[in-house]
Amino acid sequence: MNIITVTNVMILLQPLFLVLYSSSALLELAVGEWAPLQIQPIYHHTVDSLNPELSNFVKCHLFGPAIDWINGALSVEKLKHSSNDLLLESHCPFGYYVHPDEDNVDKRFCRNKCDPVSYCGPIPVDEKYTQGCTVCIDNATFINCYDKIRTSSWKPRDRTNYVLHVAALNSSACNLMGVVSTGGTCKQHATNDRPLIGYINICIERIVKKEQTIYYILQEIMRILGFSYRLIPYFRTDLGFPLMLRDLNGLPLRDKDGMYLLDPLIINVHMYNNWTDLFPNHFTKILKLKAVVREAKKQFNCSLIKGLPLEDKSNGRLLWESRLMMGDIMTNYWDNSVPVISRITLALFEDTGWYKPNYNYAGTLHWGKDKGCGFLDKSCKELSKEDSAESFCNNSVLQGCNSRFNGMTICTGGVYYKYVLPEQYQYFYDEHAGGHSPLIDYCPYYSNDNPSTSPFFDDEVVSSNCDGKRCIVHNNSWNVTVRYHNTIIPFGASCYKVSCSKNNLKILIDDKWYACKENDTLISINITKGVVTYVGELKCPPYERFCHARDCVNDCSNKGVCVNGHCYCHPGYYGVDCNLEYSKRYFGHCQHICNVGVLTYRRHECGCWCDCAAALLWGYSGYTCIEKVPPNKCTPGRCRQGVCARTNGGKSFKCLCNEGYGGNRCTTKL
User: What is the pTM of this model?
Assistant: First the structure.
């Protein structure tokens, strides 16, 4: 059976959609006003009953900042709904429903009674978070059907448009290796299918207080909001129509086994025909969503991309291929570093039709950046022959630079496996040898583990200490001569002090500045220190990437995203340069939710309010101080010795002078 997408044949399918959706529903789906996503967490007693320190950590240091980050990154379209939309439906015994009204298949009734307890995934939900029971007493004729509607004592917070139930149950999934949390969708909007209620169950034994833990939670939140195979069949077009064909009840099509039929024009198997010399053809599943393809073309600088490869070792989860997207939050592999939420990942949320992402929240994924089409369709064995010590390696050169040039890396090849590697992943002569992780197709790559310097080198010539320095790639090996004894030493990179100014890059080596005049030029080094002579070459890095990557204070301490000189901190961090970590004193996410505003606190809760008067100095206002104020007269240099503050809602300005200066423009020395 051929599945046809609505995107490509919208006109042909209009009559079908008019059957599936009433005119009022279509009007409700019309593109309208958007509002920030507002997730309200509901904590199960298993979280509240943890010891106070751990419970606070889960609420205010994991879920608090993760929720606030995603609330700032995504907006949702305002649709007509009632408070009941955020209440869970009561469950029927054995999950068996009846539909007495053939004209309204969304109206479901239980036979005779409802379950006393309703569940969201494995989490038993308190009655106050559920709707009333709808039952039919007569099973044969479906008469005496009525709603046992009750008024819930719980009301969601103002502007809430998603409810997240959080628990710490010891479920069977927590016994599986590597599982930190599980999650799922419990209720979707009746009109546009956007998820409204979801759950996350954390495996408390796996929750550790380390930097990466919050990103596992953020990844799970992204999954239940839309980043999953289960939700793709419900995605919508820009006009609000289903992205994939539906049945006459408006539901996604399924096969005879009850599995969703995924449109081959959205997800299909693609063959790359330039993989290796011995195995030129490589097959992989790719995702062909419009915004994802658009951002992938920008990321890899390849206009030929038809879709982005998906991970085939994901245990059924929707993840990007780690070999291509290593370090992105929606991959299996982060290389022991803080992951990036890339533009490609945010683009998938745009493709859902439910969200509008704020791309200012996206970080730069340096892995694969501007590597060209070959980075996607060639194996890492082929790429290691042409790559300049940033991505893949072949063990002949051990050292390299990370993608931000602020640290050294080391080649991870040379791992011996007890089993024979798949033929398409055999990169060495020994069929048991490969890189250290199957999750990245056994590729040897330059890892963030910092290597040590060879004892043959003087630290002024070659150093692995990048504190206050930048990493520069070498060209082939060094020739080290001690008196008349010559030694060839393969050393792929080292760290030096540099100077970037007016499109000129200079590198300081042994108290002498060497100039890089253009990208990819080589600098010849010939230095004699006592009886030792060092001869080698350095590769000039690409100027734009190398010199313009440090526009923010302290490069946002590597814990934030630099956008136009302003740091957008990763969840869990705050401050001008993102160098401060949330503490119990500030109840975690309050520092993040107010962006650059002033905070007020409510004791014993992760609640906070924002006073954005101070944020106007930066040009932001709104409920959480993240809305950009329209431009006014605060032009650069307006206040010579002070700061230009926006007043009157951003419509006017006032100069706040530095100490020792005064006047309307802070030009008068006091």
Answer: 0.75
